[in-house]
Amino acid sequence: MKVTQKQILFADEYLRSGNAYQSAIKAGYSKNYAKAKSSSLLEKVGIKDYIAEKRREIESHKIADAREVMEFYSSVMRGETKETVVVSTPLGMKQTVKEADLKTRIQAGKELMKRYPGNDPVVEQQLRKLKADARISEQRAKAMEESGNAGITAIKFVDDLGDDESGTGDEQS
Q: What are the angstrom distances between the C-alpha of 111 and each of 76, 80, 95, 155?
């Protein structure tokens, strides 16, 4: 449905203020019309669709996308992002601007690497170990099934201390 320029002005003002009556007046409608029909303007399909589309656009700008997050972490890690710090001095409070400390930069680097796990040698080794452990467990289970002792654990005691006549375990010369 086609939306007139006046309706677009109304919708834009309504998005700013949330007040249908004032928005209608600012868009050029008479006070009488605004009082009687401003709420019905919001129900018109064209205006309703226009407002919904504008709200989606507004929301999409408020939420950071993955690229923006990655750029931020990169700028912190490289020391490009500065922060304002308030420092107490004998003469009073003082604001200073400084780049991120080493700990913060390392943390930003770790956050970046979480998004690229294939490039992290530590993660790669952990994955290799997990795969090896899984293969060993599978082989043990297979061996148990083949031997017919599935679910049975055998315990074998071996006495390798030898005979001890005194019972104390001490050797006598």
A: 11, 17, 28, 48
The pair of structure tokens assigned to 101 is 């400390």
Count how many residues are written for the chain. 173
Sign, CA dihedral 33-34-35-40, equals positive
pLDDT 10s digits, 81-111:
888 888 888 888 888 888 888 888 888 888 8
Distances (CA, A) of 156 to 43, 140, 146, 159, 161: 83, 18, 20, 10, 15
Residue 152 has a pLDDT of 64
What single-letter amino acid sits at 32?
N
Instruction: Identify the pLDDT of residue 150.
Output: 53
How many Å apart are CA 54 and CA 44, to the nearest integer?
Answer: 15
Above pLDDT 90, what percent of the chain? 27
DSSP code per residue over 78-134: TT--EEEEEEEETTEEEEEEEEPPHHHHHHHHHHHHHT-GGG-HHHHHHHHHHHHHH
